Write the structure tokens for this entry.
Amino acid sequence: MGRKRTPGLYKRGESWHIDKKTYGRRLCESCHTSDLEEAERYLARRLETLRQTVVYGIRPQRSFREAATKYLLENQYKRSITTDAYRLRILDRHVGDLWLDEIHMGTLQAFIAARRQEGVKTRTINNALKLIRHILNLAAGEWIDEYGLTWLGSAPKIKLFPEVDARKPYPLSWDEQTRLFQELPPHLERMALFAVNTGCRDAEICQLRWEWEMSVPELNTSVFIIPGTHVKNREDRLVILNNVAMSVVEAVRGEHSESVFVYQGKPVTRMLNSAWLRARERAGLSARVHDLKHTFGRRLRAAGVSFEDRQDLLGHKSSRITTHYSASEIRCLLEASNRVVSLRDSTPTLTLLKRVS
């Protein structure tokens, strides 16, 4: 005759689950195991934790996985929530089962070592540590349970690492631009040409929509105003179209009813794809899509465009930024943007100075 299982446990699929009411509260959760004895020990520990909370006011322990789940559910509105979810999936393999009060720089060393062994940059590790720090701060300061207790007594100090291995921006010379662009497929070449003449980011270009285009009849041109929900700094982004950028827009006009840049009738989701990687390899370059924005900024500076106008043209956050531009202000920005086109032959060649060790 088989051993009787503990009341409150039932098996669903391969794992044991808890469904038990005690101390006026119903526990419904997974034991994360297929072994009955291990599930019984987990249930006993949860019941004891609940008893100490109800009787003695001791803060119940919660795992980092529970905190990560709560964070994701509460922040669905965030533009970066998909990225956060990706980082938390990686973190879950290393610290998901740890209690919140067990997480500190000591217990995070295995995660850090594993990521370094995988060859990721320090910035990637720091971004994950920032997310951990944010969740622990929420648990210690904002998340209050049904007993009036915060999820965590106090948040530990999570230290970030100096990003000495961060890749430096690499603005392209005119020759490098020619080498790269001639290797790109036509649809990517047009997008890259638009990027290097507007300073738009990859996501802004891929999401660019015709409904955001606004005509400026006084100047016989048009501009795009990208809503802040699609911009990194969350401010509406004015995109000035110099002569080259306008020629790109006219070349793709009519290809799609909604999206400006498409491939085979569908919007392009990202520029840094396999076609881009193959093209830059053939060109003998390591250029990223974001380097096109740096290239535009460098050329504006080389052409003598003022710092304030460069901020506006690059979409940088500024205390004076506004989407209520007059025709004269747009004319000024358009003339500044076109300096990049007219001064192509006289723009200084990029020179890299490296420290000799």
Summary: Strands lie at 9-12, 15-22, 25-30, 213-216, 221-226, 237-239, 262-263, 266-267. The chain has three domains: 9-56, 64-141, 174-346. Residues 64-141 form one domain. Confidence is low (pLDDT under 50) at residues 347-357.
